[in-house]
Amino acid sequence: KQPDMFYFNVGGQSGKFILDSTSQHNARFIPYTNVKLTHNATLDTFQIVDDNGIKYLFTSEETTYNDDRPPFTSAWYLTTIITPSGNITFTYSTELTTQVQISESDYLNTGPGPCSNYAPGATTSTSSSEISSLLLTQISSPFETIQFNTVGGRADMRMSSRVAGMNVLNTKGL
């Protein structure tokens, strides 16, 4: 069985890694990097530490539901950056989106040969995914807070929200 590939992009750094098959599930970066990664035993939270000692915590999960299969975590979201100047916190709301894929196969039998067992006609199949995704609503730091205002009706995903504006507030809420 091939391991899952994980991707990250934080603090001007990006990369990919797999978790090895040991009981500790150690991260193996591709290519090697000095970034350190730790996680809890259930693999539902991750922490990345960069060369400067900045910590990036990923503790919010996106969950995907495919037809009759068990749900699975499809993404982890950045929730906190721990810096010497103070913590930066990311707040999300949950948004359920649905994606439907329809595929059709048409068969036309034109005579003897390897396809002669297929009767003319069309076969259609449908699969659907529901994604409990996260929508960024606020970023807070010791110096300011950014609030994102969202509305429904994204052009590329009609059932999803888009950012319509934002408010930047100082520590006094102004």
Write a concise synopsis of the structure shown:
By secondary structure, the protein is mainly beta.
Structure, explained:
The chain has 174 residues and is an all-beta fold. 0% of the residues lie in helices and 63% in strands. Strands 4, 5, 6, 7, 8, 9, 10 and 11 form an 8-stranded antiparallel β-sheet that branches.
Question: Descriptors for this entry?
Answer:
mainly beta; 8-stranded antiparallel β-sheet; single chain; 174 residues; 3-stranded antiparallel β-sheet
Radius of gyration: 23 Å
Strand content: over 45%
- Share in helix: under 10%
Largest sheet: 8 strands, antiparallel
* Helix and strand element order: EEEEEEEEEEE
By secondary-structure content and strand pairing, the structural class works out as mainly beta
Helical run tally: 0
Unreliable segments of 5+ consecutive residues? none
Q: What's the total count of β strands?
A: 11
Shape: flat
The span between the termini is 54 Å
Average pLDDT figure: 87
Question: What's the topology here?
Answer:
Elements: E1 6-10, E2 13-19, E3 27-30, E4 36-39, E5 46-49, E6 55-66, E7 72-83, E8 86-107, E9 121-140, E10 144-152, E11 161-170
Antiparallel strand pairs: 1-2, 2-3, 4-5, 5-6, 6-7, 6-9, 7-8, 8-9, 9-10, 10-11
